[in-house]
Protein 1
Amino acid sequence: MAKLYPSLLSADFLNLQQELKALEEAGVDGVHFDVMDGQFVPNISIGIPILDAVREGTRLPIDVHLMIEEPEKYVELFAEHGADMISVHVEATPHIHRVIEQIKNANVKAGVVINPGTPVDAIVPIIKMVDYILVMTVNPGFGGQSFIGDTVDKLDQLSEVKQRLNLDFDIEVDGGINDKTVQTVIDHGANMLVAGSYFFKQSDYKSVTKTLKG
Ligand code: DX5
Ligand code: ZN
């Protein structure tokens, strides 16, 4: 069964505490926390003060997705403030190997992210180091965009490499995941699902969790 991490970007920030409680009761596997800097992506989202509030409000694992330039300057900070997993974009730094080591040294799970326009080849040199690989299924920056179908070829490639090298990284997908697209990504090897706008649009989080996790 796939793991589900609803993206808090689409949650009701006025009622974050109730949202977190409802997510726990729905049986999700963790929460996805999107950090945008207005440089790497054309949008600005949330950062440390909100992470502190989320950490205080839940024991669910927090998956921090850093959509920022120079992630090497901030990974320790996000780890200190309660992240359980941190992913960084390979496009955001010339030093991806060093940043992954930094994340691991901070004792949190390390992930690497590839944009729709980035090939799997870009992360092959560090593939043995990471706990998870996030394949963006939209261009990062906004919730509510449509799933880009061609990205599933990369899920196939990653599944093949994973099997061939006998590795155990998780394959995460983020962007446009809903009741129509979820089966496709699962069929192509994804086992960690992020869902934002589709998830939080529903009134019954338990039933949408069931729909997405299968
Ligand atoms: C997009 C973010 C996503 C976003 C997904 O840049 O990384 O996590 O919240 O939202 P949906 O599920 O609405 O595409
Ligand atoms: Zn994300």
Protein 2
Amino acid sequence: MCQYLKYFTRMIDRIQTLLTEVNAWTAKGPDELETLRIKFLSKKGEISQLFNDFRNVPNDQKRQVGQLLNELKNKAQDRLNELKEGLEAAGTEQADIDYSRSASPDTIGTRHPLSIVKNEIVDIFARLGFTIAEGPEIEDDWHVFSALNFAPEHPARDMQDTFFIEKEPDILLRTHTSSVQTRVMTGNQPPIRIICPGRVYRNEAISYRAHCFFHQVEALYIDKDVSFADLKQVLLYFAREMFGADTKIRLRPSYFPFTEPSAEMDISCNICGGKGCPFCKHTGWVEILGCGMVDPNVLDNCGIDSKVYSGFALGMGIERITNLKYQVKDLRMFSENDVRFLEEFKAAY
Ligand code: DAH
């Protein structure tokens, strides 16, 4: 084979090999793209070198080799552009994500009905200037009973009602939120105007109408010249805000060791509107809270001068108010965390 022809076949073979390589080139990222450019299209790249060699191709072959070489050059450029566009498109696809779109139709949780009602009660009293006070659930005998004027032999002190943690000294789970009164009164001088929501414990057998823990809200107002009329006005305001403007209240004399005089308050049954139904045992009235004027002994026990100051207190069960608002028939529902029950309160706030 003559010298030229050998050269010619080598060039053709080389170009064909490179063409196959260019066609098969892929790029997962800009690095592979750049390698393609440097290998084929840069000044010192394969194609440039072939163009240099092209000078030595015999004239009669120049046309065929030239065409093939141009084809390789164009193919390399096209492939480079094609791969580049592909990568850019993949990049924009990611940039096209709409971050403002909600991820998935996630369901929002609900507040527990007892929290809803507690917040409502606290809000009503806050409008009258009461601020929240809290105290510990693990208490001692003084704060729960003695300071609040419970006689030593009072049945509430009995193990049947109270969960004792230690008997000497008496450490126990509070049986009512009135213990927060004691704590606030021992640490502060009047005016005192507080609302105390919290959990309380009593040694009761669990049934649809009793539980060993439940929730109360206590309110206390102490200042100079606070009278029973102030208490009545606050009670009426609360009842109307909570159960509607048509709600009526009535007070029945009662007894609590820490108030004198004491009363229990009924509201006109908001289920039957006072006409009588199974809920109000056909009386038209339902009891919702206990209240009274703070016993002077309690004030003195806590270091507040009962000759200068007077005040009223009231306490109610949150479960009871919730039952009245939402007619929950079984108290145990409140602590079972059944989402089907909880979801029924989605619309409430
Ligand atoms: N502490 C009482 C109870 O647990 C409720 C109560 C009644 C609170 C009368 C008061 C009150 O502040 O004045 O049954």
